[in-house]
Amino acid sequence: MNDQYEYVPHRLLRRRVRDIASGVEGELMAVINENVSDSDIERWMELAYIRGVSGREFTTSVTNIEAVG
Predict the structure, then answer these.
(1) Are 48 and 66 in contact (CB under 8 A)?
(2) Is 2 helix (H, G, I), strand (E, B) or coil?
């Protein structure tokens, strides 16, 4: 694994979640701590990868997800 990302365990992995910001629901596939900086200064953020009903994945801040049901 390189220094640009690392997988983070999460209690909602493989469960149905909702992105609070957009209201879109899907299955939480991974939580990854990523360096999202586009400059020399590192900026790390935990991103949730959610697979929607269409099969496409999208990301949101892990703080923006909640369990559905």
Answers:
(1) no
(2) coil
Give the C-alpha separation, 26 to 31, whole Å.
14
**What single string gives the DSSP state of each residue in 36-69?**
--SSSS--EEEEEEEEETTS-EEEEEGGGEEE--
| 15-54 pLDDT tens trace | 999 999 999 999 999 999 998 888 889 889 999 999 999 9
C-alpha separations of 65 from 29, 37, 38, 60, 68 in Å: 12, 22, 25, 8, 9
Angle made by CA atoms 24, 30, 34, in degrees to the nearest 5 = 100
Tell me how far apart the alpha carbons of residues 8 and 44 are, in angstroms, rounded to a whole number: 13
The whole-model pTM stands at: 0.87
